[in-house]
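Kindly go through the following sequence and its backbone structure tokens. Advise at your convenience whether the structure tokens fit the sequence:

___
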Amino acid sequence: MPKLFDAHPSRVEYLGKEYPFNASFDRILEAFSMYKAPEYTPAQKLDYVTFLLLGDDAPRDPGLINAVFKVLTDGETGGDGQRTFDFEQDADAIFASFLQVYGINLRAVRGKMHWCDFSAAVKGLLQGPVCPLSQLVHIRTCPIPKPNKNNQDQIRAIMKARQNAA
């Protein structure tokens, strides 16, 4: 776990060579988006993501990209596998939550905010304050009570909210 006084990673060692990389949150999100895009081949995706994060001169090697993401996530795991939010689908809620809770306009910090800061801030949004993102996640993850004669309206409201949050 990184310490508060540690610098955020900006270089990765791979096959005995050190590579600087751009870890601004917008670049990382664009890389995620590219990997999800079905219209590109794996080679095109690798080429673009390498350019995006490491520049023109870096080798187009999936191992290098994996090394960058490993450094950025510092061994984090994906949790229990339940998808609670999506960076693309929930972009408006994320933007609004950053503005509401932290006073940060994400468009104003493109190219400046490091992925590690962004990631920590998103985790903070999910752990407490009432904001658009935490409300979406709550809707998607709250348990649906077992039906009884008194809770039909509550169940309908949860189901409708989930449809709107999908």
Q: What stands out?
A: Residues 91-165 form one domain. The chain has two domains: 11-73, 91-165.
